[in-house]
Amino acid sequence: MPSVARTAQQPSWRDRLPPALREMVATPLTFKVFRDRELPAERCFGYDAQHDPCYYAHRFSIQELRSDDDEEFYACTLYGESLAAWRLHDGHWLIHRIVHSDEQCDEQGCYSLSPDMPR
């Protein structure tokens, strides 16, 4: 069951935002963070002065226990995703997505534009 936390400490909402675009996004003033108690998963919503969403982020991973010798086990990520999105002043959303999987790990991620906030 997810838990909700209103956080006094600001999430690092600018970390993945390219410096050249920082003046083009709405600044979140308040945040709601949802964490799952059973899975490594989290969602964060940021709201501007009018209480409209202007930042969104999520991260999760699906893991599996593996063993090379049937004695010692380790967790391996089958699939994981980390996403951050910012509402631009023109209403579009800039999205940065990083996908992790057993076969590949795209640490650079990719940027895209969307007319809607990601879900």
Characterise the protein shown here.
- It comes from Azotobacter bryophylli.
- This is DUF4440 domain-containing protein.
- By secondary structure, this protein is an all-beta fold.
- The protein is 0% helix and 53% strand.
- It is built from no helices and seven strands.
- Strands 1-2-3-4-5-6-7 form a seven-stranded antiparallel sheet, with no helix packed on it.
- A hairpin with an 8-residue loop joins β6 (93-101) and β7 (110-114).
- The two termini are 19 Å apart.
- The mean pLDDT is 88.
Question: Using DSSP, what is the number of strands?
Answer: 7
Total helical segments: 0
Strand content: over 45%
Strands ordered across the widest β-sheet: 1-2-3-4-5-6-7
Ranges where pLDDT stays below 50 over 5 or more residues in a row are none
Name the structural class.
mainly beta
**Could you give the distance between the termini?**
19 Å
Percent range of helical residues: under 10%
**H-E string:** EEEEEEE
Work out the radius of gyration. Answer: 17 Å
| Main sheet characteristics | 7 strands, antiparallel
Shape: elongated
Question: Oligomerization state of this entry?
Answer: single chain
* Global mean pLDDT: 88
Protein name: DUF4440 domain-containing protein
Organism: Azotobacter bryophylli
